[in-house]
Amino acid sequence: MNSKTRLTVLVFISALLALGVMAELSYIKMTSAEAGEMLAEADTRSGNDAWTRNARSVQVNERDSVRILDDAKLTRTKLITLIDLLEKTGRSMNLSVVVTSVKSDASSISTSSPETVNMTVTTSGPWASSLAFIRLLENLPHKIYIDESRITKEGQVWETSSTMRLTTLPEAQ
Prior knowledge:
There is one protein chain. By secondary structure, the chain is of the alpha+beta class. Helices cover 55% and strands 25% of the residues. It has four helices and four strands; from the N terminus they run H-H-H-E-E-H-E-E. Strand 3 (144-154) and strand 4 (157-168) form a beta hairpin. Helix 1 runs antiparallel to helix 2 (49-72).
């Protein structure tokens, strides 16, 4: 499969993923609106406290679901925060961390479609910290594709290099 076909497939899959997330958010917001209507009806009924508590519980759960989905979605703004967090975490693990390359596959930045970002992170430091950092990258809460990960030893220092692809989704409107 040539690179143009792969890119087309990746863009199509990313678009489907974005549509799925948007559909789920729409469903949750619709359910939240229904919970609000239930609350209004519950407030008019003074003798039915259990029904009122149930309606309030549904509304709180729906708000939490929207917040959880929004937190899990990697946006362009959250990508900057993620890079900063990786650097700070690496330093706290006694590693020198450098994000050497962050570039987008998109020819122009569009605010309404997913974007694939290629990123290379290099570290140097002790063996245990280097391995722990690679495991951290593998377990990020975002959709990430690690294209290559290397560990080498230069003298007494272990060096890692991880090349990865992340998909950022549009900011919430």
